[in-house]
Amino acid sequence: MTPRTTHLDKGVAGAMSALSSAAKKGLGDPVLAELVMMRASQINACAFCLDMHVDVASENGETSKRIALLNSWEEAGEFFDERERAALALTEAITVLTDGFVPDEVYETAAKHFDEAELAHLIGLITVINSWNRLMVSRRIAPGGPAW
To answer: Which terminus of the chain is more exposed, N or C, with fewer CB under 10 A?
Structure first.
């Protein structure tokens, strides 16, 4: 088996980091941003990103209970509010494009909870975490391993 590279071009990493920062800033809700990034990372089985975003979420005041329940957010009752649920549903729809598109009802629900600029930043955030997940999973970068 060919060893996997740990190399990631610094220009690519810098551009991805800038996109992540812009999307988070534009969304304006650091806890929600981390929930979205953790959920996509769960779906994509990206241990590196999940580990990192659990730490960042905790630093931003997220509770261990909600982090533990995130994988079952739809069944978690009152632990996640309607806005968070809309963002998590959109995260799942964009992350798993099995039908080739985001269902209208998922998009419309998100649009009720986010203004146009917030929605654009949320979609950008979901897109960039999926890209980060693919960069880490394809190279099998373990939690705490070298990102680049």
So the answer is: N
Give the CA distances from residue 76 to residues 70, 71, 80, 110, 130, in Å, rounded to whole numbers and listed in that order.
8, 9, 7, 19, 24
- Are 12 and 136 in contact by the 8 Å Cβ rule? The answer is no
Alpha-carbon radius of gyration of the chain? 15
Q: pTM for this structure?
A: 0.95
* pLDDT tens series, the chain, 148 aa: 888 888 899 999 999 999 999 999 999 999 999 999 999 999 999 999 999 999 999 999 999 999 999 999 999 999 999 999 999 999 999 999 987 899 999 999 999 999 999 999 999 999 999 999 999 999 999 998 877 7
Distance set, CA 21 to CA 4, 18, 24, 124, 129 (Å): 28, 5, 5, 10, 11
> With the C-alpha atoms ordered 107, 20, 145, 32, is the resulting torsion angle positive or negative?
negative
The answer to whether the beta carbons of residues 110 and 86 sit under 8 Å apart is yes
